[in-house]
Write a structure and sequence with these properties.
This protein is mainly alpha-helical and 260 residues long. The protein has one domain. It is 66% helix and 4% strand. It is globular. Belongs to the PGAP2 family.
Amino acid sequence: MIKRVTWKMQQVPYGSVDRDRPLIRVPFTRLAVVTVSLPLVGLGACIALALLYHYNDATYTHCQVGNKLASILHSLAAISLTPERYIWRFSIGLHSAPRFLVAWGYLRFYRGHFSWRLSELLSGLTFLFAFGENVGLLLLTYVSSTETYRLHKSGFIMFIVCSLVHMLLTCRLWSLIVKVSFSSDEMKSYWCKLRLFLSNCCCCLVAGYFYWRHNTYFYTLFAVCEYLVVLTNMAFHMTAYWDFGGKEVMVATPPEGKRF
């Protein structure tokens, strides 16, 4: 059984004095745009700098296969050399905290919509895989391929696997939500999520094929597919723009008597 309830991202009781008013109050739509823009701009800057100033390193691969485009998994320069590594680490580190916050917000959102035990279990698994996706991204970011390649590769695989499972579970939960929803934003969000998930899966499969062929031409196409995987992943998370469009993220001090 699915129940419809009104859920707010954060409810804070306010006092009558100035010190009990919100310290920070940000529309979620603005937070979503900034959060997704950080890795998007950071990745674009890193690739551009790597190809302009470190082309040989950017197109180098550990298996000595020729390459014409910087690969996220194997490139030594795209996110490993100076100043690329600092740009990438800054953008990912700064955007990771809102990602954890949004994952927790979705968990509350789903549990506010469902009373069916299996759906509550799915919402919990969705949160865990969203958490694992973010951890995998941090791991592949802060452990570069030039430092510990196997750990960097493990972070990349963790990111991809957790991302795909998270998107699959999210689409399943939203398929249940839209069955009883009359909201155009929720319908739009669901169909965008589904299309982006299928596109991400196709890009992963094609990238795997190109990687398996493993020559200069196909390895360059593998790098292109890597970018498409990352971009469709970012776009999938951007659908939170519609999911929490009318909500705000607030930091506030509790009223007297509520303080610890």
